Amino acid sequence: MKVRAAILWEQGHQPHENGPLVVEEVDLDGPGPGELLVRITAAGLCHSDLSAITGDRPRTMPAVIGHEAAGVVEEVGAGVDGLAVGDQVVMVFVASCGQCEFCGSGRPNLCQSSWSARTAGTLQTGSRRLSIDGRSLHHYSGISAFAERAVVVPSSVVRIDPDVPPEVAAIFGCAVITGVGAVVNTTRVPAGVSVAVVGLGGVGLSALLGSVAVGAGRIVAVDTNAAKLELARTLGATDVFDATDPSCAEAIVDALDGGVEFAFEMAGAAAAVELACAVTRRGGTTVTAGLSKPSERLSVQLSAMVADEKVLRGSYMGSCVPRRDIPRFVELYRQGRLPVDRLRSATLPLDEINAGFTRLAAGQSVRDVVVP
Q1: How far is residue 279's CA from residue 6's CA, in Å, rounded to a whole number?
Q2: Is pLDDT of 278 > 90?
Q3: Strands (DSSP E) along 192-274, which ranges?
Q4: Which residues touch 335 (CB under 8 Å, ≥6 apart)?
């Protein structure tokens, strides 16, 4: 079938109004055994996609990118159980096998079964379903969401209630599970404690919303962008600090009488991790969930880590079990306890996707959503 899709022909470019993504008509083969055809109803523009565009995180090209999305199942391949035509689904950017040590211990976010496929630019089945003029195009994170339709494997989707608007549902696939998951899964933040969130993109603000939902006491928001700090205050932050202020860390430590009990770094930069560590109090925990450039290295004072008994840990995909957590987070949204709809900056047609990434790169948006 013919579908319109945004192709990234090569990495290493900054986004601008007319590129580097090219929206073209491509060929999409139907699903084979163990695969699904999904009509994409909305897709979020994430910094992980931006890092693919700029080349900060190398991927196999050319590809149809995009990994945070919602859609409706249109066709089910042979051997697929538990999903049916008409189901609304949220995309999951780590396809898991359900059989390995990590899956068996409740950590499918660490499953490595799809990593070779991700590197090769195929689906987990090893297939490629995208092409243009007879030339194969690579899949991106097993999803390739910036298109009208996508072929995926069942573990790349989670069924949700159909009453959630698609442009909101899409955000659950990356921003929400990563940010909220870091709070409720990776660290299990208890009610009443102090929390800091460093970096207020879609993931960081999701962590802030998660902190509000679990009843954290003092919630500190840290960023370089004044508009995002103001948004954070309206979403429940009790304190906001400008990260460009040289005395930022000292000011937070003073204001919180020694620092916060949990600090979440969501900016994907070593300097942000170091700031998060600096504002974590003795006996506290620093969590880093922002994916940085592979070349970045971290500098911490080891003696302080020991003497202060601080914990520094990573969080990937919010330590989530997607089929358990996405419906749970969606229900919190439906109850009004997780207002992730307020993270959406704009809704764009597919033809304006480059403008959306230009805004994202300039820090002018939290989550623009493309509706193909």
Answers
A1: 41
A2: yes
A3: 195-198, 219-223, 239-242, 260-265
A4: none
3-class SS at 224?
coil
Q: What is the rounded CA–CA span in Å between residue 182 and residue 310?
A: 17
CATH superfamily of 2-173+339-371: Medium-chain alcohol dehydrogenases, catalytic domain (3.90.180.10)
Contact status, residue 348 vs residue 369, Cβ threshold 8 Å = yes
Q: Could you tell me the strand order of the sheet in which 311-314 lies? A: 239-242, 219-223, 195-198, 260-265, 280-288, 311-314
Residues 6+ apart with CB under 8 A from 245: 251
**pLDDT tens digits, residue range 24-34?**
999 999 999 99
Per-residue pLDDT reduced to its tens digit, 177-207: 999 999 999 999 999 999 999 999 999 999 9
Residues 286, 57: Cα–Cα separation, whole Å:
24
List Cα–Cα distances, 123 to 109, 113, 117, 207, in angstroms.
17, 11, 6, 30
Q: Tell me whether the omega of the peptide bond preceding residue 339 falls within 30 degrees of 0, making it cis.
A: no
Instruction: Return the DSSP state at 343.
Output: G
- Residue 305: count of CB within 10 angstroms of its CB: 15
Domain spans of the chain, in order of start: 2-173+339-371, 176-316
Which CATH number, 3.40.50.970, 1.10.630.10, 3.40.50.720, 3.30.530.20, labels domain 176-316?
A: 3.40.50.720
